[in-house]
Design brief:
The chain is an alpha/beta fold and 250 residues long. Helix content is 30%, strand content 33%.
Length: 250
């Protein structure tokens, strides 16, 4: 079965890394390079606009890593990671990447990855699952910032900018000093990955940043609201109240 022309994008902050992939692709006339990007920001724009079949992707890049880039894509290409760091291999395969090339690699090793790509494309493997797996809670990694996409812009939200998080169906609304942002994650993910000494789950639907707490208000016999410094008023469950008593030394 013949394979149609494969459109590919190379994303790597190192020029030598991009040049090596370009050189190795000379053997593969069925793969056409439609763009090269030197960082994740350029990569997101190129992938969403050009809609490639395949992306060769570095992981450790300034400002936006390969994994963070994938999380905010609207188009779902096949991914071959190309990186000098072996510690991300397990995570790469958890998100169903086609292959994980550890620099430096040979032409033969590169050719193996290309053959895997052809098989995936011939069998109509859904690369959308890669992104869904990346967004899934099973990924065992600590987050150090929250990356969101809004109005075609990529926004980084530092933990100290967050007031609280609110569950909204399959999303979480993040309320911060930069504004409101929706993130396709679960409350369970944030509860497990945000620093526990900085955030507290006060309700099934709410997580608050501890340093943003102004006071705990009682509004009837057994019910409380949490008032934040931005004057947000959040409901507090019984278990949330017990956590707050411990944290606030009430």
């Amino acid at each position: 079965m013949s394979l149609k022309m494969i459109k590919a994008i190379i994303i790597d902050d190192e020029k030598l890394g991009r040049e090596l992939i370009r050189k190795f692709l000379e053997k593969h006339s069925e793969i056409k390079i439609i763009a090269e990007c030197a960082n994740g920001f350029e990569g997101v724009k190129a992938v969403n606009e050009l809609k490639p079949d395949l992306v060769f992707l570095d992981i450790q890049m300034p400002k936006l890593t390969g994994f963070e880039m994938l999380e905010i894509l609207d188009h779902f290409p096949q991914i071959v990671f190309s990186t000098a760091y072996d510690e991300f291999a397990i995570k790469a395969f958890e998100v169903n990447a086609v292959d994980y090339l550890l620099k430096p690699y040979s032409q033969d090793r590169f050719d193996e990855a290309v053959e895997k790509v052809k098989i995936r494309l011939n069998t109509n493997f859904s690369s959308k699952q890669l992104i869904e797996n990346l967004r899934d809670d099973s990924i065992d990694s600590r987050i150090n910032k929250i990356t969101v996409s809004k109005n075609n812009e990529i926004v980084f939200i530092d933990f100290n900018e967050i007031f609280y998080l609110e569950a909204q169906d399959d999303y979480v609304q993040i309320y911060s000093s930069k504004g409101k942002f929706l993130k396709k994650r679960t409350m369970k993910f944030f509860e497990e990955n945000l620093p526990q000494n900085e955030f507290v789950r006060i309700h099934r639907s709410y997580i608050a940043r501890i340093e943003k707490i102004k006071k705990l208000e009682k509004y009837d016999k057994d019910n409380y609201h949490l008032l934040l410094i931005d004057n947000s008023k959040l409901p507090v469950s019984r278990s949330g109240y017990n956590l707050l008593r411990s944290i606030l030394n009430i």
